[in-house]
From TrEMBL:
This is Smr domain-containing protein. PPR repeats lie at residues 12-46, 47-81. The lineage of its organism: Eukaryota, Haptista, Haptophyta, Prymnesiophyceae, Prymnesiales. InterPro entries: PPR_rpt, Smr_dom, TPR-like_helical_dom_sf. Residues 161-240 form the Smr domain. It comes from Haptolina ericina. The keyword Repeat applies. It comes from the Eukaryota. It holds the Pfam family PPR_2. PANTHER family: OS03G0856100 PROTEIN, PENTACOTRIPEPTIDE-REPEAT REGION OF PRORP DOMAIN-CONTAINING PROTEIN.
């Protein structure tokens, strides 16, 4: 930006957007806000991309209140937030441990006439919910019913759950749902299950999270037995070892409650 000014070139909204996005990627929230202010001083109207990048920068810098303030400023200026604006604000709340604020923003997104929650929005709000697995599972199922989460599980001799496109919170919710509802509903228990978390470059889309670590803790908490595997991006669940306590007790409680599994239908 400074070089453009030295050359006598007036920065455009596209130039500012590129600079703010660079700050967002580098976690430089103060610089992002400074650029946003400079746009207005120069008479360049910030648009949805400008605000969304600044909101994301604030979220990455732990400035969740500033992120929400920017979302409100958009509306006051007549700039309609996009699904990415809402998602960035929700993620800012998630990172700061503010689940109620995240749910409020998600509700605003749901009430928006021009936006539909997508996988990014659901990932963000599921990150925010943390240990609130009741509300998390409800939102997970809502995301599945809307087609935001698709092609994440396969059934056969060795059922598989693929968590590649899921955030940490979404991955935990998916694993608990799959093990507590879907697997026990199978007509015959398989000997093994595969849970794919991805590792290294395969997780680049969600590089800020530790899905493998989160899933490992969830499996340990549930008492799920795993077998050694040479692939760091997957867990191999020993169903026979788990059946003695975990799977058997889950099945019993399902039968007592008359609970029916929803979502996908197991192939015959």
């Amino acid at each position: 930006m400074e070089q453009m000014q030295r050359c006598g070139v007036e920065p455009s909204v596209f130039s500012f957007n590129a600079a703010i996005s660079a700050c967002e990627k580098g976690g430089r929230w103060e610089s992002a806000l400074s650029l946003l202010e400079e746009m207005q001083r120069r008479g360049v109207e910030p648009g949805v991309i400008s605000f969304s990048a600044a909101i994301s920068a604030c979220g990455k810098g732990g400035q969740w209140e500033r992120a929400l303030s920017l979302l409100e400023e958009m509306e006051h200026r007549g700039v309609e937030p996009s699904v990415f604006s809402f998602s960035a604000a929700i993620q800012a709340c998630a990172g700061a441990g503010q689940p109620e604020e995240a749910l409020r923003i998600f509700g605003d997104l749901e009430a928006s006439s021009s936006n539909n929650a997508n996988i990014v929005s659901f990932n963000a709000v599921l990150d925010a919910l943390g240990g609130d697995q009741v509300r998390a599972r409800t939102l997970w199922k809502l995301g599945c019913s809307r087609g935001c989460y698709t092609d994440f599980s396969w059934w056969g001799d060795t059922p598989q759950l693929d968590l590649h496109n899921l955030s940490e919170g979404a991955a935990e919710t998916a694993v608990r749902w799959w093990l507590n509802e879907r697997v026990p509903a199978m007509s015959a228990a398989p000997e093994r299950l595969i849970i794919v978390t991805g590792w290294g470059k395969s997780r680049s889309m969600l590089r800020d999270g530790d899905v493998r670590g989160r899933v490992e803790r969830v499996l340990g908490g549930l008492g799920v037995s795993t077998l050694p595997t040479g692939n760091k991006g997957r867990f191999l669940v020993d169903v026979r070892g788990w059946c003695r306590d975990g799977l058997a007790s889950i099945r019993d409680s399902m039968e007592e409650a008359g609970q029916a599994a929803d979502g996908e239908v197991e192939p015959s």
